[in-house]
Amino acid sequence: MLVSFKFSQKLDMSVKVAVVTGSNKGIGFSIVKGLCKRFDGVVYLTSRDDARGKAAVAQLNASGLSPQYHQLDVVDRESVLRFRDHVKKKYGGIDILVNNAAIANSAEFYNSYEENKNIVEINYKSILTIQELIYPLVRKNGRILNISSDCGHLSNIRNKYWIDRLSNKNLTLNDINEFVEWFLKKSKNGDLSQDDIADKATFAAYRVAKVAVSALTMLQQRELEGRNICVNSMHPGLVRTDMTLGAGFYSADEAAETPLYLVLEAPATLKGSYVWYDRKVLDWYDYNADYYFKTATLQK
Fold it and tell me: Are 9 and 89 in contact (CB under 8 A)?
């Protein structure tokens, strides 16, 4: 008589877990580095490309730090599902999640429809997938940080219809999605007015995507309030990284300080906020403010 034994891996629910998306380089890499030094738990460095992710882990290993690695392509639903199942099976949940994966425009101020669509997919729509599949794993009292931009402040939008709709206190996900689709349709038809978006609609897709992320953050906070999860978005400053083509006024390690503060040290009362790189909480709704991104900054 054959007797089979089924062995199951025991969940270690006592271990705290932090995850940073798109973290093989730039600010994401520096956030992982900081978490490895300051967070009492497991830190996941994730990346779309396996080789680059593992090379980043090796670099941290050489500095005496030991993040875990898992492949994660935020625009690939199957990749997100694999990562979710891995974390769920191994640890049961997540305590800190930093949605950092992003791309910016090319060196050009204006992009084709296909480029704009890709920018929106990665910077905004991927977070909807993460929200659907990964947020259920975020434990009570957890922290979620959406890396936005000065391009993500409402002052980047000049179209009055969308200012009014996005600043409505009863904002819905449908409002945000329709705003994004409005832009994509305008981009496809080639009839976006330079008066609809700040700075003559330069870097339009990135502005639209990041404004959508900042607005979405407030909705996410509403939905997760019952689990006392803090959800915030922040502008990390103009950082010298590949994404900014080397332009910027400080390093990725310096830029990681405020994100680390928000997920490790900020008061639990800080929720649903839009935070500047100097930790100042800004009024996201102030569309007349001078917080919008200016292309002249890149030329200084």
Answer: yes
